[in-house]
Please model this.
Amino acid sequence: MNKSPGTELRLERHYDAPPEEVFAAWTDPALVRRWLFTSAYGEGQSVALAARAGGNWSITDRRDGADHTVQGEILEFDPPRRLSMSFAMPQSSPDSDVLAMKVEAGGEGGCLMRFVQSGPGIARELARTPAGQDSGSAAAWRIMFDNLAGVLASRVGHGRVADEETAVRFERLLPGPIERVWHWIADSDKRAQWLAPGELPAAPGQSFDLVFDNAGLSPHRAPIPERFRKYEGVFRSRHQVLRLDPPRLLAMTWGGGKEPPSEVVFELAPEGDKTRLTITHTRLKDRATRLDVSGGWHAHLAVLAERLAGRTPPAFLAMVATIEDDYARRASPHA
Model:
């Protein structure tokens, strides 16, 4: 949501994370470098941040052989609710604005982040921006807040390796009765909003197509790392239903081509007024394949959670990049 009356830029964003996690993402250098003032095309980042009132902070993102630096001083430090800091880009402007962030608990473990940018720089920019349009800074912050969503999603609900390292398993406790969650898995139009459309056959043994449009899972747009550009287009894959027991079980083949297909199993179980969804992806041939499917399922499940909550998910491929990087770090022997 954009609220920018007059001379201040005001944005709001709901995150499916507690206030402590959001505050840490603004103040922990290891997390900051993954989303704040850094680019998907950056050649390297350096972050210095003294997490206290009066502490200095700076972020340098190297792009096309040149360093781009933002810097300032922390003015208010009240974890996990309030943070404000001065903000300057000395290589492009003598102005210094103020960034203020407030986090409020939003129920179900989530929170609402309210953001304000004020000062002479943003005031001039907003004055030049036609009514009804986003300013350049608003658009840039929306992209960064999408990247922040990816960072927060990557920190919870990791897939667990199972079946002697040939499978990965995910669990999510989702809002609503089992019939509602099943609808989002079995119905083509609902599934299109978080995974891919395709009419599910009525009986095991029958085949069907899923049509993936990953970039279309969200109206938001963000820069995509080069290695993920191959997933931007629309592509079709063939699957066979192996087991079907609505609204509790769906098992299907996945992939294939020149190699035997893997298998994906969706299991649903009621848990109070919610539903526990377990997804198990089996018959994965090696570690690289496990990492690849883990990042994808983790991101798709983040989109599903946003859809079930009635919210718009962040830009999908940028989120996948953030989540896959997190899985790679966790799998590294030096992590």
Remarks:
- The radius of gyration is 22 Å.
- The chain has eight helices and 14 strands.
- The mean pLDDT is 91.
- The CA atoms of residues 10 and 97 lie 13 Å apart.
